[in-house]
Amino acid sequence: ADAGTDGRMTEAPSAVSSRALTKSFGSVRAVAGIDLDVPAGVCFGLIGENGAGKTTFIKMLLGITRPDGGSVSVLGGSPDDVTVRKHVGYLPERLAIPEAFSARRFLASVGRIKGLASTEIDVETERVLELVQLDRAAWKRASGNYSKGMKQRTGLAAALLGKPKLLVLDEPTDGIDPLGRAQIRDVIVEVVKGGSTVFLNSHLLAETEKICDHVAVLSQGRVVQSGQLDVLKRKDASRVRFVKAERDIERAAQHGFAHTSAELDAAHPEREQRDYRWAGGGPAELSRAVAAAIADGLVLVEVTPELKDLETILRESITPKGAA
Questions:
Q1: Beta strands 234-243; 197-201: pairing state
Q2: Model confidence pLDDT, tens digit, residues 276-294
Q3: Beta carbons of 304 and 239 less than 8 angstroms apart
Q4: What is the longest distance spanned by two Cα atoms in the chain?
Q5: How far apart are CA 203 and CA 49, in angstroms?
Q6: Which residues of 34-53 are buried (b: 16+ CB within 10 A; e: fewer)?
Q7: Cα separation of 102 and 189, whole Å?
């Protein structure tokens, strides 16, 4: 939220917003009414099964495909608005670079399309190619000899030209080795720190979980779960560790802590601590339970929240209630 001229707080505009958005291809309903808000200045991940409607939604927010119904706005304007498009960077899932083009030549062509001045294109090309850590020796080499990872880096560099306010990335780490993925994550983090919004579509859930602070789950053309990732991951349960002591298991149980490390204790009798699980509610209830256990003589070592991973969140979001 931002402070208005009268001192009152007003909600910051969304980088992307859609209401009742629909799109069909013949008899296939690709998008069946998407309501979604992507806050400005975050890294937002869109996840879902193949065929959930992710790519179609991205094409509509980019103005590549027109919706059948509903509305979508980007940076407060229409995806068709040229002034809006100038502030959007896009890395498609299947990037096509002319094989005879070098990275420099490709970025120059993209820069001209974005309306950058010639002098600005030169400066920006240097900046973004260094940012994505493409080997300088490859800058002037024909891309037909590039590896998949080098092409992805070149495409990401092109998307970053002009410091876009919204960066849309469709499978940005596809074909890149683990070290390269870490480097790309660092780039995305820096982009967000600079105030831009990143909209990420990736089937690599572990990668998405590492860099996104907001996510939405798409299923059968609809958003079935959306919010801050740290909130969606909570299980309202915690792992608690107390120092091993006489009758500690019994005393811990009186305060709602269930002993979970019996097998580990038996295998390692020299262990000086025991692990417990607490699932009694929110933070306030946990604080009271821990305080009561400490007052009863238990010595606290550690409290760690139990969290769902993104794979679990996806599975629970798209599995009908009551299904096995």
A1: unpaired
A2: 999 977 889 999 999 999 9
A3: yes
A4: 76
A5: 8
A6: bebbbbbbbbbbbbbeeebb
A7: 27
